[in-house]
Design a protein that fits this description.
- The structure is a homodimer.
- In chain A, a hairpin with a 6-residue loop joins strand 3 and strand 4.
- The longest helix of chain A is centred in the middle third of the chain and has 15 residues, at 59-73.
- Chain A has 4 helices and 5 strands, in the order βααααββββ.
- Chain A is of the alpha+beta class.
- The interface between A and B is medium-sized, with 31 and 31 residues.
Chain lengths: 147, 147
């Protein structure tokens, strides 16, 4: 993906299709063991008895893999200086090996009051299944960007 | 930690000291390679030149490790059914090997409208350094809990 050169090249409403990725089952289990060791993320039988009805990725994993996908796309490689916060929701859980597509949309952009070389952007990440468009992550993240 | 038996045992304002944890440097690098491969999370020289001034953990890692610490504490092991979303902020970055303490506070609690067997709780996670109380994660998470 072509890297954006400056926050000046972004404007509210601009949207990027970042393509697809999956969370392989082995990685779902590995992530859950490390960071979210709850039965419904680790064991098929326990997951069937849970509100999810089957084994699903930790929402932390869905979120982390989404950011990993964004960073690897290279889109923000020349301008991303760091992040300040995020509002996350998981409207539906993500099962292993289910292809999802990420869309990034610029929701807001302003100059930094304290650092004139920086802009502050609100970027929305929407991740939905390729199968039927079920949204599995909807996030609004604050990014500090090079102007 | 003694597990809470029912959402009925929680009430707004109740707070739990969940003790300390650290993000070891090797784990900081491993997490960043997988989920947030940006130079300021991977390379000391690049990090010194960044707005952070030194290598710091990915905020995703701080958040994931916090949830991992909460789950491993066992506090919610008998009642946590899943999560619906989270508002995250990282007021300061977390360097590797810096001990932090997690405090969990019940901010709100209501019955689920759609599922009478469930309660919906807003739980606040505050993670601060032991050294001087710098807050490195402040999150409000929605948890579905067994009543």
């Amino acid at each position: 993906m072509t890297a954006i050169r400056s926050a000046h090249d972004l404007s509210p409403g601009l949207s990027f299709d970042l393509g697809t990725f999956v969370l392989p089952r082995a990685e779902v289990l590995d992530f859950a063991r490390r960071y979210d060791p709850q039965p419904f993320h680790l064991d098929d039988d326990a997951a069937r008895a849970s509100i999810f009805g089957r084994l699903v990725a930790s929402g932390l994993h869905t979120y982390s893999a989404t950011v990993g996908h964004l960073i690897r796309s290279g889109l923000l490689a020349e301008i991303n200086l760091g992040g300040g916060g995020c509002e996350l929701s998981w409207p539906a859980p993500l099962p292993p090996d289910e292809p999802v597509r990420m869309t990034l949309t610029v929701e807001a952009l302003r100059h930094s009051r304290s650092r004139p070389e920086m802009a502050v952007a609100t970027l929305r990440y929407v991740v939905a299944t390729e199968r039927n468009g079920t949204v599995v992550l909807d996030a609004r993240a604050t990014h500090f960007l090079r102007r």
